[in-house]
Amino acid sequence: MTTNHLVLSGTVIRSRHFDSPAGIPHTVVQLEHRSQRFEADLPRNVYCQLQVILSGERFKSVADKLKAGVDIQVSGFLALQQSRNGQSRLVLHAENVELKN
Question: Which tops the pLDDT comparison, 98 or 60?
């Protein structure tokens, strides 16, 4: 059995909403994460930005609240997404989102 599950908290940098051609609502959020972890017994500052995709009606109630500056915790699965220009990037497909403000 393989596992693909990530939980990440951070601050929304920007978000956009759109409906797919099939009429499915999507919200795309750019999430900024900052923390400090210990690695090899030394403190390490961690910083990353990750695109998060919320798909479907079940996220409609929270989607309007996801504006720049809002802190959230999101859990879901990672997938490779290829853009129209052929560039690939890792994105997080949300299964659960919690507002932290």
Answer: 98
User: For 1-101, where are the E strands, in sequence order?
Assistant: 6-19, 25-39, 42-55, 71-82, 88-99
The type of residue at 12 is V
Does residue 59 contact residue 25 with C-beta atoms inside 8 Å? yes
pLDDT, tens digit (0-9, with 9 covering 90-100), for 3-22 = 999 999 999 999 999 999 99
Q: Which two tokens stand for residue 99?
A: 């507002």
Distance (Å, whole) CA 11 – CA 100: 9
Q: Express as a percent the part of the chain with pLDDT over 90.
A: 85
What is the C-alpha separation between 43 and 72, in angstroms, rounded? 24
- The domains found in the chain, sorted by start residue, are 6-99 (2.40.50.140)
